[in-house]
Amino acid sequence: MNLLAIETSTEACSVALVHGDEVIARSEVAPRRHAELVLPMADALLAEAGLGRHALDVIAVGRGPGAFTGVRLGISLAQGMALALDVPVVTVSSLAALALEAPEDEATILAVIDARMGEIYAASYRRDDNGGLIALDDERVCLPDALTLSPSSAWHVVGTGWTTYADVLRGHLTGELLSADGTRYPQARHVAELAAREFAAGHAAAPEHALPVYLRDKVALTLVEQGKA
Fold it and tell me: Which Gene3D superfamilies match (predicted)?
């Protein structure tokens, strides 16, 4: 299987290529430069693997939640490439991809992205026996103070939401906080890892059915709201 994965939902722009048993990736934290970086990254990976685009079997993409423009860009690129190559698309939760940045043990993982406007995107997971993820709740956008989590004896927290709201989030965690890293972003290599499982299980879709997940319709504050913020 040759699978190309794209993840552009946050400040990090990344692309990964699954080529047989090998995974190679490129990633750069480059706000507002995703559009100029993605395709050159993809071409570099294909060249490194000695593949042309027509050797790809499937395109994978982080579907959000995240920055509106980044999520839209990733989905649009995935759809365009898949249509041109006549291959299917697998969409993967960007929060699930972020969760795989946590240490590999039995602790519960809180993946949390700073959603701006005083809100966070959040979901919690635990690893299964096969190295995959089990979602423990629904992805949501909410105020940090309004976050509700199921009890757990141990936690890992990953994502930019921790950098901004660590004090508030810490108060919602039951049990021991084993690690917390606010510098982590969703990465294409983890999108690829999750998508490969979905593709093997027959869960790929036609490009036109690859849809973004924004979690909220409102993407900017009005001038009045900015004055109150």
Answer: 3.30.420.40
Number of Cβ atoms within 10 Å of the Cβ of 188: 33
- Give every CB contact of residue 116 below 8 A, 6+ residues apart in sequence: none
8 vs 16: CA distance, rounded Å: 12
Rounded Cα–Cα distance for residues 62 and 160 (Å): 17
CA distance 163 to 181: 8
Q: Which amino acid is at 144?
A: P
Q: What single-letter amino acid sits at 55?
A: A
Read off the pLDDT of residues 66-117 as tens digits, 9 standing for 90 and up. 999 999 999 999 999 999 999 999 999 999 999 999 999 999 999 999 999 9
pTM above 0.90, yes or no: yes
Judge whether 84 and 71 are in contact, CB under 8 Å: no
The residues, any chain, with a CB within 8 Å of residue 14's CB and separated by 6 or more, are: 6, 7, 8, 25, 26, 27, 28, 41, 185, 186, 187, 188, 189
Written as six digits, the tokens of 173 are 């965690």
* CB-count exposure of residue 180 (10 Å: 0-12, 13-18, 19+): buried
Answer yes or no: is pLDDT of 226 > 60: no
Question: Kind of pairing, strands 176-181 and 154-158?
Answer: parallel
